[in-house]
Amino acid sequence: MTKNSEKTSQAATIADTIFRQATSWPSNAGTPTVKPMKSIRGRVRDAHGQRGATLAILLAGTSLMGSPVMSHAETTSGDGAAPYRIEEVIVTARRKSETLQDTPVSVTPLSGELIKDLGIQEISGLSKMVPNARFTESSGSGGSSALFIRGQGSSSTSLFQEPSVGVYIDGVFSPRATGNLFSLPDIERVEVLRGPQGTLFGRNTTGGAVLITTTMPQEDAGGIVDFSYGKHNDSSLAFVLHSGEIGSTGIKAKLAYKDRNRDGWVEAPGMAESDWGGSVQERQASFDLLYENDNNLSIRNTVSWSRRENEVPWQILFATPAASEVYASSTNPPPVISLKPQDLQYRDPRRSRGSEFELLSNTLTIEQEINEALTFKSITGYRKLDQNMSTSLGGSYVNVPVLDFDTFTVSVEPLVGHVTPFNPGKQEQFSQEFQLSGDIDEFNYILGLYYWQEEVDERLDVVFGIPGGGPFGPVSVNRFTSREYELDKESTAIFGQLEYQPAMFDSRLSIGAGLRYSRDEVTLKRRSEAASIPAGLFRSNPEQSDDFDNLGFSGFVSYDWGENLMTYVNIGSAFRGGGFNATAINTPSFDEETVLSYEVGAKSTTLDGRVQLNLSGFYMDYEDLQLLSFDPDVGGSFVRNAGEATIAGVEVELIALLTDYIQIDGQYGYVDADMKEFLSGGVDISDQSNFPYIAKNSYRIGAQFTSAATPVGVFTFRTDYAYTGESAGDLIDDGGFGAGFMTGADKNLSARLSLTQIPTGNSELKLKLQIYGDNLTDNRFESFYANFGTTLGTAVASFNRPRNFGISLSAEF
């Protein structure tokens, strides 16, 4: 057996023993006594001194803020019964494995088991578990994510715009919103890093980073099959199969697949429910090969593929008198105009599909541990994305009087919404990262080189229906715009971080600092721009190039005051790449966004490991903050820079085991965002500006009860209430149409009842049955909002999913 295999076997035995203790399963005869894990500041070792980092994650069956593994302490109480305590969770937020409570970073880990236990199949379900986070589907497409952490994020699906929350899948940067939905069938864990992460993770992390890790091929053959069915015919079938070691080659394989289909809830008369607003059809597959040998060499290659189609439900909230008059003259049913969700959308029958994407990727990871002082790691990534985003932001299909701008004649004809984008595009990227890391006496370090190259080819066609009147009566003037472009980007970086733990302080004190130098080169080639008003095909700045340099830094001091408390102070910078507004006509480029962040925090574990309380406070100072704005005169949305802004806040995370069977947990987040300077046309409009999709307050409280073993298994009941406050709908509140509109608050009550340890007569087969309900109070709110102003005459929104419930069954073998 190889050294890595021995580590795998040992960690698996530890995990199995803890799991059996925590769930009162009888241990098999002859199970060896397990020595406790030792947590050494800055590194994780098992009792034998071996690195247990990668495999110790197996012990973290659930996250701190969810349904944690509870294990018996090594000592017993006075009556001889071993008390339960919160199991340590391993994270990799600093590019190395260490326990959550030893990490001087604000990070929330969510295990794959927790994600399945909570029935999370969409990204919105993740954000309720993370303070000051808002994750949802993007405004233009249900196949894209809109990630906001501590008030920073982006809702654009355009391929030219940089995110402010970086997403990494198995160490590879995934830069575009499309495809980042976290619905993979084989997630091991998701780590949400709150706050800028500019040194270790680089560009486009001014708000934070999301690290997604998929499961490794296992030592033994086996697998798991999951099936669920719920309201709206929401059915999902997924499986993960492990080959185990193939002979004595050191090679292991894994195959994962997921098939999900859901009908919509926003009725589209004349169409099948599978085409209604909110519908989803998605397929995902991946294949892993892992090689390990006696010399601590590990080579892993993962090929993954995914495809998704969906319809985004939109509804008109407001309409100007001119727009209302035009729509009322329709010979088809007029559009629904209401501040409340009506779940009705008359859609153009000529449209055969909604938004869709297809994604292919390959990740090759090579790791060689030479000795304790030196480990080499290489991460090579390739990603190819094809997207076709198409929707009707007008929310309806009407026959209205349309004015031909050339002939000045009026005819009644179909109008596809008043804002209808058609957005096909391709994105292809290659990345290479090399890392050197290790521990040398009182120091540990990481050094890295990074290269990233991207090619984008995108077209955006938009039809605007502009309501009008005058001598022609209520009419719509159709305006068409079209842009095509190519975008090439290259980014190179060198980074390093050094941590010092003086022996004189018994390794309780940690002092660290890091630097990262980055250089971006961006080239935009506009192939064509066309518009119907004014008519014609024209080019504007057909080729533009620019480059951006940034030297970022980080520093921290932490102190372990004993078994119960660790405090830390962080300072760091990050940047978000600049670029060009490729899909907007005659708009200036935008500069890079920079941020300087300060954070203080404390992490405590008390009452014999039964209570964990983590606190953090932060202050972030932004320069040239990038914000998304809409203007029909330039053909849609574009990025603009605000001069200065600050964002401050606090976060609290708590988990408590009240008894051996009852647990409560939750979190609270507060954000105060202030626009200091926002120049528009030389005028400071900061007093009129807002931070869209930023809620001042958010919180969640959860409770869980686990029964003792019964003849049919172990019952677990869990309920959560999550609240995210209302937020501004517009970037600019100019006192005009729809001024001051606030999106509604998300008030989500969920519950689920699980049955585990179901007797099967086969010790290798584990069954789990679950009944769940989400949004039980049927609270509806605007998940996304767009104000098109008085020119187009409407403001629209998409509403969240109504109350839903279902059942799931899983089998592990």
- What is the CATH C level class, in words? Mainly Beta
Approximate helicity band: under 10%
Number of strands: 46
Structural class: mainly beta
Strand content: over 45%
Biggest sheet architecture? 22 strands, antiparallel, barrel
* Cα radius of gyration in angstroms: 27 Å
Can you tell me the CATH topology? Answer: Maltoporin, Chain A
Principal-axis shape equals: globular
Characteristic terms for this protein:
single chain; 813 residues; mainly beta; Maltoporin, Chain A; five-stranded mixed β-sheet; 6 helices; 46 strands; 6% helix
Protein architecture, described:
- The protein has 813 residues and is mainly beta.
- The chain has a single domain, classed as Maltoporin, Chain A, CATH 2.40.170.
- It has six helices and 46 strands.
- The strands form nine sheets. It has a 22-stranded antiparallel barrel. It has a five-stranded mixed beta sheet with strand order 7-13-14-11-12.
- The two termini are 23 Å apart.
- Residues 1-82 have low confidence and may be disordered.
Short description:
The chain is mainly β. The chain contains six helices and 46 strands.
